[in-house]
Amino acid sequence: MNHLYHSLSPLILLAAFLVSLLAFLAPTPILSDRVSLLEVSTNVSSSISVKRWYAEDDSVALAYSAHRFVRRAKKANASSSSAAAATTVPVTVKIGPLGACFTNLTTTHQSCMSPSFTPIFVDVYDDALKLPSSLSSTLPEQFPLTTTAIFVSLALLAVQFLAVVFSSASMHASKKLTFLDKKQPMLRKAATVCGGVGLVVGLAATGALRVQLGKAADKAGKLPGVEAKLGPGFIQLFAGLALQAVAGAFLVAEAFTSK
Q: Per CATH, is 2-26+144-209+232-257 categorized as 2.60.40?
């Protein structure tokens, strides 16, 4: 039975780490078009500079000659003037733990913030997207602690994974790794403690983020012309936590059966 635990636990923890890591990194710097925590779409008015050209002929004279027609004209003076043409542009902003990706009003392509543990979204709302104040006031301005907490949870999950891998390696190749076999209790204890603390921190951070962005989605969705919804990033984060809990249960069961 212990060999079954040692075989399944590393695979489950690896899957949990990869699923959570992808959700943590999206939409910036990766998976900008697929994964996010909050997605808001609306239409904004954008001013586009349009150049109009006016040509004025000062004089055009046609003179008849016995041999040919002669056209005499002065060089036309061209003057340009710029006029602002207002147009409606559909924009989308996708918010994740490390930043946001949004529609660039100039190119109408997607642009992304630089990844940060303390992303500030106010500049994106006001300067880049020029969202109305009624909408920007409903969206989160920054993530002061939750991003760091999720990162700590991922780091503890990585430590738990390494401890389980070393423990499993010593079980399946005890002759070659005898020095690890003597440290089995310490490795199991480290994996259990790191997994438990990481699971609690991850649940608390993800739950707080889910409540914060859920309220923002509800408020923004009530505004006319605004579509707001939670992204698939939360599904991935909670799936990773669920897999981590399963691996933790295997560790606890192994501790009881090995006595």
A: no
